[in-house]
Amino acid sequence: MWADLAPLGRSTSSGGYFRQPFAAAERECLAWFLEQAASRGLEVEADGNGNVAAWWRPEGLVQNVSHRSRGENHAERSGLGVLTGSHLDSVRDGGAYDGPLGVATALAAVDRLRERGYRPSVPIGVGVFVEEEGSRFGIACLGSRLATGALTPEQAGELRDPDGVPLLDAMAAAGLEPALGPSPLLRDVGVFVELHVEQGRDLVDRDAAIGVASAIWPHGRYRFDFAGEANHAGTTRMEDRHDPMLSYAMTVLAANKQARLAGQRATFGRLQVTPNGTNAVPSLVTAWLDARCQDEATLAAMLAEIERQATERVGRDGTALTVTPESVSGAVHFDATLAQRLSRTLGAAPVIPTMAGHDAGILSAAGITTAMLFVRNPTGISHAPSEFAPMADCLAGVDALADVLAELT
User: Fold this and answer.
1) Gap between the Cα atoms of 119 and 145, Å rounded
2) Residue 256 burial (CB < 10 Å; 0-12/13-18/19+)?
3) Which residues bind Zn(2+) 1 (predicted)?
């Protein structure tokens, strides 16, 4: 399976991946998934927005269906299925493992359970959520937010990609029939388990191949619009300029310093400049801040200090600043009892937090009992071509996920 996925959306120059949601490479990955599901006799369901689930319902299994109502805790509700899986899209020039490892491993875990002769008492599903990275429409975990109702149809209808293409048009161009609103795919899901490559070196430091998630740090994406006055780069005296690039540059340094002092995370990784000319003072600089902290109070304090320093600089430069939160996720604390239970199932696997956002966090916030497993990443690098997990650890992940699914079903 991994060999089949490897060439899809891969750059011949950098070796990185770009599987943009609703575009060719990501759709090829989905076609691969549908073929894998069909070869296993899994029942495929789709919600019209790009989210897909393939269910293993052994012959003769009688499901005691209890439909989900939003906000209820269905941790022990009899008859509800267990869903696993992840996503197939990627960031620009990203790694091979972020997302697809969880999908391929889920399919292999179903194979492993069948090899063991295991028969689940409730259905087991393998899910694929669309646009998890937010690389095209700016909203992380877009598919799972739509599926849980965390993103309203009105909000989704306003989304545009950097080329101005509306979300609904992109969906339609991919052959989908958008049905914005809570997804029927999650209606009968009692537990969701997501396996993911670790995005860091915690497991490397612990000399452990597999870990269990305890929490996800709160995080968000914030747009900073620095407005100034366009002018000639050669004829305008330095003291006469209202240059938003200076305001932006100071803000980048302030964000870096505040994050380092607090032991948190702050990154300006995306930038747009208008008019973007070599010989022109810009009129507008738009930059996106990714900020992540151990708790909401620390995140709010760090953002406030970054904005305060940016505002002071704007006053000196004669520019203007507008800050807009675009995608903000609160802290997620996975069910501690379940995490410890799965740790014991896996031979005392370490229970660790993650600073990266995941679909599991969105489903957890929606009231679905949720857990995550991590596979060791020896480089510690993610969202880049060097992202890696040894095949031996990936296969350990297959066995771990199979054991967890058996424990839960």
Assistant:
1) 32
2) middle
3) 87, 98, 196
DSSP 3-state of 227: strand
Q: For the chain, what are the domain ranges?
A: 2-217+331-408, 219-329
Give 131's Cβ-side CA count (13 Å radius).
24
Q: Name the 3-class secondary structure at 371.
A: strand
Taking the C-alpha atoms of residue 112 and residue 99, their distance in angstroms, rounded to an integer, is 20
Known binding-site positions for Zn(2+): 87, 98, 133, 196, 383
Pick the CATH number of 219-329 from 3.40.50.410, 3.30.70.360, 3.30.70.20, 3.40.50.10190: 3.30.70.360
C-alpha torsion angle, residues 11, 17, 21, 24 (rounded to 10)? 30
Q: Can you tell me whether residue 60 is helix, strand or coil?
A: coil
pLDDT in tens, 62-101: 555 544 443 343 334 446 999 999 999 999 999 999 999 9
| 137-172 pLDDT per residue, tens | 989 899 999 999 999 989 999 999 999 999 999 999
pTM of the model: 0.84
Interatomic CA distance for residues 237 and 233, integer angstroms: 9
Write the CATH number of the domain with boundaries 2-217+331-408. Answer: 3.40.630.10
Cα–chain center distance at 241 = 40
Query: Partners of 280 in the beta sheet?
Result: 232
Residue numbering of the annotated binding site for allantoate:
221, 279, 292
Please give the backbone phi and psi of residue 243, each rounded to the nearest 5 degrees, phi first.
-100, 110
Report residue 179's pLDDT band, with 50, 70 and 90 as the boundaries: confident
Annotation: binding site: 87, 98, 133, 196, 221, 279, 292, 383
Burial of 237 (C-beta count, 10 Å sphere; 0-12/13-18/19+)? exposed
